[in-house]
Amino acid sequence: MSSIPPLASLAVPPPVTEAMARAHQLYWRTNLVLISVLMLIGFVTSFGIPLMATRLADVRFAGFPLPFYFGAQGAILVYVALIVVYIVLMQLADARLQRALAVLPADAAVKPGP
């Protein structure tokens, strides 16, 4: 016997208003832009600094040459900072989405879910 349920028994998504759809679209666009920027910073930290190590050898940070500092501990601090920034900014985006959904009028035009 097949374990796949018939199409009629699949859950139907709830109706979605235009304002709700816009709020979710803005939320995910914010998420994607934030991830892209943070990953770019991580890429530069991981590959940019080591590739430019010979040119940056004269730059000193905390008494050490910059490439050595980043190899020893600076990159780890950047990665931790990226995680913290992502958490804080996504909590703000979550709160903004919750506020947007809370103020939606109850009689707004409803379109079927995706």
- By DSSP, the count of extended strands is 4
Quickly give the structural class. mainly alpha
Mean pLDDT: 83
Give the number of domains: 1
**Cα distance spanning the termini:** 30 Å
Please trace the helix and strand order, writing H or E for each element.
Answer: EHHEEHE
Helix percent reads 55-70%
Strand content: 5-15%
Question: What features would you describe in this structure?
Answer:
The chain has 114 residues and is mainly alpha-helical. The protein has one domain (17-103). It contains 3 helices and 4 strands. The protein has helices at residues 18-51, 53-56, 66-102, and strands at 16-17, 60-61, 64-65, 110-111. The protein has a two-stranded antiparallel ribbon with strand order 1-4. A two-stranded antiparallel sheet has the order 2-3. Strand 2 and strand 3 (64-65) form a beta hairpin. Helix 1 (18-51) runs antiparallel to helix 3. The longest helix has 37 residues, at 66-102. It is elongated.
List keywords for this structure.
mainly alpha, 114 residues, single chain, elongated, two-stranded antiparallel ribbon
